[in-house]
Amino acid sequence: MSEATQRLFFALWPDAATSHSLATLAQQVAAESGGRPTAPGNVHLTLAFLGDQPRRIGRELSAAAARISAPSFDLVLDSVDSWRKNAVAWAGAQSVPPPLAELQQKITRSLLASGLEPEERPFAVHVTLARRITLAVKHPLAPLVWHVTTFALVASELDPAGARYRVLSSWPLAQRPSDDRELGQK
User: Fold this and answer.
1) DSSP H/E element including 78
2) Is 114 helix (H, G, I), strand (E, B) or coil?
3) Crossing angle for the helix pair 57-66 and 98-113, nearest 10 degrees?
4) Contacts of 85 by beta carbon, 8 Å cutoff, 6+ apart
5) pLDDT tens, 75-109?
6) Is residue 20 flagged as an active site residue?
């Protein structure tokens, strides 16, 4: 009997307000591109896709991720674009915050240390908004600021209605000193 597997990835998972803004944008971009919007509960930014992995590895990945230290940051999504070949429309950032690049690299190093090979595709900062698009889209977006405070290990579960994502574990990113001031603390 073969070992049970689950499809895993590390991601930035938006807070409720950002998730709502991105879901609204997904509806607009899907209408514009003739595609199917990403389900509101599935909107995220993938940091590392792991594919099908033995269920037991989730605990090891969680332990490794818990040791990652990285600061919180603002991700400014300011453009909409598409990949016609994949029939996907997405929101992206013209400028990648250094803490995002560093977090993604730390996760990659953690995967390698665990004996897992990360995807060969280069890391692309994007949030998928619509799939099965029939028209290409590309235009500026009024800046949508996502204050990123956590990252997560997520399982992708396929069912007839499409993929559903379930956050298995999440970890906080360290607050920046400016975050304390914004909260009225010294």
Assistant:
1) strand 73-83
2) coil
3) 140
4) none
5) 999 999 999 899 999 999 999 999 999 999 999 99
6) no
- State yes or no: is 44 an active-site residue: yes
Mean pLDDT of 170-186: 64
Write b or e for each residue in 49-87: b if 16 or more Cβ atoms lie within 10 A of its Cβ, otherwise e. ebeebeeebbeebeebbeebebbbbebebbbbbbeeeeb
Across 120-130, average pLDDT: 91
Name the helix (H) or strand (E) containing 87.
none
Residues 22-49: tens digit of each pLDDT: 999 999 999 999 999 999 899 999 999 9
Chain position carrying tokens 């590309």: 138
Q: Which residue has the tokens 């250094």?
A: 98
